[in-house]
Design goal:
The chain is mainly alpha-helical and about 100 residues long. It contains 4 helices and 3 strands. It has a domain of about 55 residues.
């Protein structure tokens, strides 16, 4: 084992070390599901705080892009962009296509 491998924790997700395993279809599917869930919860959180009063009509949130969940490496998000399921909007922000 080289010094650079010893310096990194065994469970660290690096794009180089796990690319074949990370890009499996079931992993991409779980990552996309996690992204959709985070987007939904982020929108609900913002929408619930817009109208404080019980008689408020509320408004839909303008959130269309979020930072992806960090439990998946960057290679997963790049693969989903390449498949056309996500679009990179800005630095670290993605939106559903």
């Amino acid at each position: 084992m080289s010094e650079s491998e010893a310096a990194q924790p065994a469970d660290a997700l690096t794009a180089d070390a796990l690319t074949p395993e990370v890009l499996k279809p079931e992993v991409l599917k779980r990552a996309l599901k996690a992204f959709k869930k985070r987007l939904k919860l982020t929108r609900l959180d913002v929408e619930s705080s817009l109208g404080v009063g019980p008689m408020s009509g509320g408004r839909p949130s303008g959130i269309v892009a979020i930072s992806p969940p960090d439990q998946y490496p960057q290679a997963v998000w790049n693969a989903l962009v390449a498949e056309g399921k996500l679009r990179k909007v800005s630095l670290g922000q993605y939106e559903l296509v």
